[in-house]
Model the fold of this input.
Amino acid sequence: MDDWQEAAFSNRHMHNRTGCGSKSKHSPIFDVRKTFASYSVKCPSWLKALDGSQNDNSASLELYRLTENGEGVVGELFLPGLLHASVILAGSRTSLRGIIASFEANGEEADAVEEDDEEESDAEPESPEKTRFDTFEKNSFRSPKFWFRWSGSPTSSTGPKESPSVESELGYIVFSGNDCRKFKGTINCASLGWKNVAISGQKLVSRSDSDARVTWGEAEVGI
Done:
C-alpha cells in the first residue's frame, strides 16, 4: 500500500506523497471520510443502453463508511434500469483483493481481481479510456484515486429480465481534489459489453458514517 493510502485508511487522513520533511507543513491533508456522500453519476454508455429513456440525474453513487478492516470504503452504485450494485473502494488493487477475500470465504472474487490485474498489466493501450486509465495511475499522487469492485445483477435492456445472474467486475475513480467534489473514472461489465467505459460524478450531499445495509455476492454477505 502506498504511503498516502496507508495514512488515509489507517489514520483516517493522509499527506500527499510529496509532503515530506519541511514541505509537509504545507501539504494538503486528505481525509477519506470526505468520500462519504451522495454523488450524481454520468455514464454515456448507460444512457445509450437504455436508448436515452432515463434522466441521467437519476444515476448515483452512494458512499457510506469504511470497511470493517478500515482499508476500504463501502457503497452502492445505482444505474436505474441496468445495474444496482454494491461497491468496495480501496487505495490499491492489492488492498481491494484482500478486502474481497475477507468476506468471500471461497476466495473466488479475490482470484478474479488477481486475474484482472494480470490481464491489465500485460495489455497494450487500446482505447482512449485505457490511455486515461494509465494517466490517472501516474498522477495519483496529486488526486485521490480508488480502485473499486462492484457486485450486482446487470439487466440487459434487450435480454431476458428474469433471474439475472450476479456479476462482479473492476473499475476505478479519481477525485479532482481532497474535497472529493467530483470524480472521473471507468467501469467494466462483461454482460453489457463494457470495457473501461467512462463514468463521472459530482457530490450532491456529504454524510457522516452510515450503517446502511449493503450485501455482497449471491450469498448476500453483509459488508
Summary: Residues 82 and 155 are 5 Å apart (CA to CA).
